[in-house]
Every structure is written in structure tokens, then in C-alpha cells.
Design a protein that fits this description.
Structural class: mainly beta
Number of strands: 11
Distance between the termini: 7 Å
Radius of gyration: 16 Å
Order of helices and strands: EEEEEEEEEEHE
Largest sheet: 11 strands, antiparallel
Strand order of the largest sheet: 7-6-5-4-3-2-1-11-10-9-8
Number of domains: 1
Length: 174
């Protein structure tokens, strides 16, 4: 990608909810691209599954089925994308740097971690992590690592090394 770097701040406004299963986590997200108008999305995370609702479509990942379902509510269409089956493939390298930066975000004390390496591609990802969010961190970490199977999401393997829950994520495209 050419031109100036683009920043995508992704704010996890933590609204933890009880969804279809007691272990599910519901997160309201405010996203902006290149300082544009913010948009809202809701993410649900559960064991072996996740869903993103941006108002016009659902993106449902079912690791247990090895599929991603994209439902376009406006066009009333859907498609199914198989997850790649690469059991012997060497995962792309991911680097995690714990920084000394700390601040309060939406009432949560947080520390910044920087994610880079081949798995991040042309992105630099800063995640602000709090270890005080009352969620099943081990379950969340397991899901994030598993979601790293999706093409373009390999950087999520970084959650193997990150202790806590992301309350802010900032992505810079190089």
C-alpha cells in the first residue's frame, strides 16, 4: 500500500453480556478509519465461535465447523467461506512487545502492547490490555488464537503472549 500510513482506532467499549451461552462475551466497538465518521459494531465471542454485526451484515466464524458465514442483511444474501486447513503449515512469525505505556481507558487501567512481524503484514497493531476486566481470559485467549486461523488474522496468535483483555486496539497500515 502506498501513501501515508492510515490509522484505524478500534475502541472496545466493554459491555459484557450474556448471549446464547453463559461464557459468551459481547463487546460494543466504535471504529473510525482515517479520522472519518465513527461506526458501531457488536462482537460476540464464545467457545469456538465469534460473530461481528456492523448493522448491515453478520460475519460468523465457526471454528468447530471450519467455516466463515457472511450474511448481507441488506441484499438478503449469504456466502460460506471454508477456513483453510493447514495443520502442517508453519505459522507466520508474530512479535509482541510489552511497552511501559499505561493509561486509563473507559475506566479500565491498561498497558500498551505492540504487535508486529510477518503475521501482522503491513500493519502495526497496538492493543491496550487490562487484566481487570471480569471475563474468562483463558477462554478469550484460546478463542483469539484459534481465530488466528482465518486468512488475514494470523496476528491474533499474539494473544498467546498477551495477559488480559483488549480495551483499545489501534491499527496502523503502512
Amino acid at each position: 500500500m502506498t501513501g501515508p500510513a492510515r490509522r484505524w482506532p478500534l475502541l472496545f467499549l466493554l459491555l459484557l453480556g450474556i448471549g446464547s451461552a453463559a461464557a459468551d462475551i459481547r463487546v460494543h466497538v466504535k471504529e473510525t478509519v482515517n479520522d472519518g465518521e465513527p461506526s458501531q459494531a457488536v462482537h460476540w465471542f464464545g467457545e469456538q465461535r465469534s460473530m461481528r454485526d456492523d448493522g448491515s451484515r453478520y460475519i460468523i466464524t465457526r471454528l468447530d465447523l471450519g467455516k466463515i458465514f457472511i450474511v448481507n442483511r441488506l441484499a438478503q444474501q449469504y456466502r460460506v467461506i471454508p477456513l483453510p486447513d493447514q495443520p502442517d503449515a508453519e505459522p507466520a512469525a508474530v512479535n509482541v512487545e510489552r511497552t511501559d505505556d499505561v493509561r486509563e481507558i473507559e475506566g479500565w487501567p491498561a498497558r500498551r502492547y505492540r504487535i508486529g512481524g510477518a503475521a501482522a503484514g503491513d500493519m502495526t497493531i497496538d492493543v491496550w490490555i487490562s487484566d481487570e476486566v471480569p471475563v474468562d481470559i483463558a477462554g478469550f485467549r484460546r478463542l483469539m488464537v484459534n481465530l488466528g486461523q482465518r486468512p488475514g488474522s494470523e496476528w491474533m496468535q499474539a494473544y498467546r503472549q498477551i495477559p488480559g483483555f483488549p480495551v483499545l486496539q489501534e491499527v496502523t497500515l503502512e
